[in-house]
Amino acid sequence: MQHDLRLRAAARAIYDNVYPAVDPAPFSFEEAERFGTVEYRQAVGAAQDARSALAAQDDQLLFAAIL
Questions:
Q1: What pTM did the predictor assign?
Q2: Between 1 and 27, whose confidence is greater?
């Protein structure tokens, strides 16, 4: 996912919030990304869902502004 830096940043933010340092995940984000762990894939899926939801919201706001 290195080619989509914004999606990677969102996945990292989700990963860090779901697996905080107080209750650490077995891997750092970089290790989880390298190994493609379940936790990493869940964070990426959540980031993709968030991107879709935010894009849909932006589309609705743009459409409302046109009207």
A1: 0.62
A2: 27
